Amino acid sequence: MLSVSNVSVNYGESRILNDVSIEVPDGKIVCLMGRNGVGKTTLLKTIMGNLKVRKGTIIYEGKDITKVATHRRAQMGLGYVPQGRGIFPFLSVYENLLMGLEALPSRELKHSAEKVEEVYEIFPVLKQMGKRVAGTLSGGQQQQLAIGRILVRSPKLLLLDEPTEGIQPNIVEEIEHLVMTLGKKGDISILLIEQFLDFALRVADYCYVMEKGHIVSEGNTTTLSQDIIREHLSV
Ligand SMILES: Nc1ncnc2c1ncn2[C@@H]1O[C@H](COP(=O)(O)OP(=O)(O)O)[C@@H](O)[C@H]1O
Ligand SMILES: [Mg+2]
Fold first, then answer.
1. C-alpha distances in angstroms, 66 versus 13, 27, 183?
2. Which end of the chain is less crowded, N or C, counting CB atoms within 10 A of the terminal residue's CB?
3. Percentage of the chain with pLDDT > 70?
4. Phi/psi of residue 9, each to 5°?
5. Closest ligand to Cα 9
6. Mean pLDDT score of the chain, rounded to an integer?
7. Backbone angles phi, psi at 148, to 5 degrees
8. Which domains does the chain carry?
9. Alpha carbon 214 to chain centroid distance?
10. Ligand 1, pocket-test mutation among 16, 40, 162, most atoms within 8 A of CB
């Protein structure tokens, strides 16, 4: 589905990602972990095309997309749910979902009502709250909306940046359940950045650990040593 090979990225003169390689196989959930500031968000932005690759390649569904524009990547099926959610707080839930459809080519827009209904099926609470102003939803509901806004485009690869950040512990379980449900559908692959180790290990098939801009450890979640991960996550 996705192969990032030996990718390096700078902010100005400073090298943020150094020779990063990761794979997201078809229909799998892959987790990227690491302390704050190591470059996790930078990697997702790079995959989405928001940052320029200095070295290396990004292959998506067999095509080299290293230089493809962001909106084209969205049309090709990449969906990015940014850290901090990025919803429009002053628009209604329904309007937020419609905004998600903007990236689609116009020939697909005629199905917009259907797409919104599909998302309402996954998140019934969003249907109940369709007319509510998004900024008044709870943290967990806003996260559902942020994900829903991307799901209306039927992405094939979902890039999820810390969906549980700033969310009450009891809602974290809901988000975990949601990620698992999406993963089980089988028609979507997920690259997840997650700080909750237990959550990450339960939902993901494979895990990467990042430290200062490169991958320092990786493995199947069933065999990867939790001690190694904890060592890299602890301050
Ligand atoms: N817009 C920016 N300009 C310059 N440096 C940045 C910018 N965004 C992030 N950085 C730096 O890049 C590094 C990686 O950041 P980031 O990818 O957000 O880390 P993470 O998501 O792992 O917490 C940090 O040192 C951060 O200070
Ligand atoms: Mg981040």
1. 20, 22, 26
2. C
3. 96
4. -140, 140
5. 1
6. 90
7. -60, -35
8. 2-87+155-226 (3.40.50.300)
9. 19
10. 16
